[in-house]
Design a protein that fits this description.
Number of strands: 13
CATH superfamily of the largest domain: Spore Coat Polysaccharide Biosynthesis Protein SpsA, Chain A
CATH class of the largest domain: Alpha Beta
Number of domains: 2
Strand order of the largest sheet: 5-4-2-6-11-8-12
CATH topology of the largest domain: Spore Coat Polysaccharide Biosynthesis Protein SpsA, Chain A
Strand content: 15-25%
Helix content: 25-40%
Oligomer: single chain
Number of helices: 12
Distance between the termini: 50 Å
Order of helices and strands: EHEHEEHEHEEHEEEEHHEEHHHHH
């Protein structure tokens, strides 16, 4: 990691709204509209000692640093608490919140619960933007600067992100997320839009439901696959503490819960047959959906949302996601 400036200091007694944005010296000049913009990061984590230093270092090295970073230690039993304490001592804008050990790594609703523990530690109105950020990522240096610049340029964007890549045999492999979503591991939100949709639901597939809720209100959810917005995901999408097949099956269940129809689910699974683990990963996703349907598991309890989702998905199957999104964006 190249050397970096710690950035300007400020009076700790000053209220957040009076503190300057952290802008690193000797960097590409920052858009002046960003100088008054403030963003907060909230990071739920558990047992991330193997990955977290890369995330911590890449946030510290951002061209525009966060005004605050709340990291929620969700009962870690490895070296995570010690690493967090080290960085919190070095950077006064990092705050660590500790939750008791639940005895296992939580996904889905458990992650959202931990996120809201961090959310309770801030006043969201002190910030223009917020981001739910995982601690198993390596971010490019202008990541948040560029996201804020894009959102200033287009007030219709509610949430956005870059694209996730994994490292494999010295190569970067695209995780292949759609352009119509902001990625769950780095969900960057306009605070006003986040509040308007009611935040994240405490359910599986929370990171898909929120994007469709934004579209229901006429806003955009998007991500860009550009060099300066590509980040490395150190734990592959859909993996699990048990196995990658468990993670893929869980994704299929999540799609079922959200309200995804079988045809769209089948098309989605088919589109990933050439992604590791080849074929079997897609079959695990499809089985997650089918087994949930056979068991008649409950679905997301919002009929209007599910009807909107089905209409969008059927249109996407007919004309493609990009055109379906464009049609949703047209004024009535």
């Amino acid at each position: 990691m190249p050397p970096f400036s710690r950035g300007p200091q400020y009076d700790e007694a000053a209220p957040p709204s009076h503190r300057p944005v952290h802008v690193l010296q000797n960097e590409t000049p920052v858009n002046r509209s960003l100088e008054s913009s403030r963003y907060v990061l909230i990071s739920p984590c558990r047992n991330e000692a193997d990955y977290m230093r890369q995330t911590l270092d890449s946030v510290v090295a951002q061209s525009v640093r966060p005004a605050k970073w709340v990291i929620v230690d969700d009962g870690s039993t490895d070296a995570t608490p010690q690493i967090l304490a080290e960085y919190a001592r070095q950077h006064d804008w990092i705050q660590v919140v500790t939750r008791s050990d639940r005895g296992h790594r939580a996904v889905g609703p458990g992650v959202v619960d931990a996120f809201y523990t961090g959310y309770a530690a801030i006043n969201p109105h002190d910030y223009d933007f917020l981001c739910k950020l995982d601690l198993d990522l390596r971010l490019p240096p202008r990541y948040f600067e560029i996201l804020m610049d894009r959102m200033h340029a287009d007030p219709g964007i509610a949430t956005c992100s870059g694209k996730a890549y994994i490292e494999e045999d010295g190569q970067l492999i695209d995780e292949r997320h759609g352009d119509e979503t902001s990625l769950g591991m780095t969900k960057f939100y306009r605070v006003s839009c986040f509040e308007a949709i009611g935040g994240f639901v405490r359910e599986v597939m929370w990171d898909g439901i929120d994007c469709h809720q934004c579209r229901m209100k006429g806003w955009k959810a998007c991500s860009w696959n550009e060099p300066e917005l590509r980040f490395v995901h150190l734990r592959p999408m859909g993996s699990s503490q048990q196995s990658i097949y468990t993670g893929r099956k869980r994704h299929g269940y999540g799609q079922y819960f959200m309200g995804t129809g079988f045809l769209f689910m089948a098309a989605s699974a088919l589109s990933r047959v050439n992604q590791k683990p080849y074929v079997l990963g897609s079959l695990a996703m499809l089985w997650g959906w089918l087994s949930s349907a056979l068991q008649r598991k409950p679905r997301y309890d919002d009929p209007a949302f599910r009807a909107f989702l089905r209409r969008y998905q059927m249109r996407a199957l007919l004309v493609g996601k990009a055109r379906a999104i464009q049609e949703l964006s047209k004024p009535n």
